[in-house]
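Hi all, long-time lurker, first post. I run a small reading group and we've been trying to get comfortable going from sequence to structure in the token notation. Rather than ask abstract questions, I figured I'd post a concrete chain and ask someone more experienced to write out its structure so we can walk through it together at our next meeting. Sequence below, copied exactly:
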Amino acid sequence: MWSARDIPRLDGSTALVTGATSGIGLETAIALSAQGAHVVIGARTAARGTDALRALPGRGSVLALELASLHAVRQAASDLHERFERLDILINNAGLWWQPAQRTTDGFESQMGVNHLGHFALTGLLLDLLERSPAGRIVTVSSKAAAAGSVTHLDLRTLDGYRPTTAYNASKLANLLFAFELQHRLAASDSSTISLAAHPGGARTSLFRDASPGFRVANATIGWLFTQPARAGALPVLRAATDRRAAGGEYYGPGGPGQFKGAPKPHRAPDRACDPVTRRRLWALSEVATGVTYPCVPKELRTDL
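-- Answer (accepted) --
Happy to help. Here is the structure in token form:
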């Protein structure tokens, strides 16, 4: 049974955790810091980043990061390049949940824009730093909700017929499609960096503040049956990020019934997250939307051969 005690020493390594000011992100940052990693806290505001930094038992720093703005994402990536020669772990954790209809700075639906496109751009802009690590890892945090998501008729900008749950589910499916397609491309280019995915199950975090009143009442009364503390919810992310036996393309989540609670273990991803055609379509759409292209292109997709 894997636990935080199984996290190896990480002295000399650098990890960036997005959305590390609360919940799963903060617990992940604390655990990595406790094992000697220099943890970079990706934060929307300096004040929240500084507060989170005080919670770390070891070394760390703050990176101003607003995933709802592609300009801000590029600035954050530039800042990180100036401060570090390499990046060993990137954890794409930040996310919006059940948001009202709104757009990012660049005009995209906010949940897809922040949860997927912001991380797609950030990862691509930092990939060179990760490949300077002897064993770089990228962990993208998804959700059980991915199983109900669809990107078949995805329009990144329209808010017509917007439903918070549908948008969230789609963004979490996009997280998995991205993580698995990235692994395919990294492996095809013989990169030492690997891409994995994880989900926290039912974790009690501040995301619930955006839920409907009915959901909040239900969560307050019977939520304990299906949820666990944020510290436990962070364990699948931590295992994906640090377990030396973990392999690229694996998907970690709680091992209990329904994957709501329990010690982390690898799981089969939802079938809709494993379709290579859908993965490639979303990838192409994301490159156009963000203006970020990746150097790792599988042989079958190259046009210069």
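A couple of things your group might point at:
Residues 33 and 85 are 19 Å apart (CA to CA).
The longest strand covers residues 38-43.
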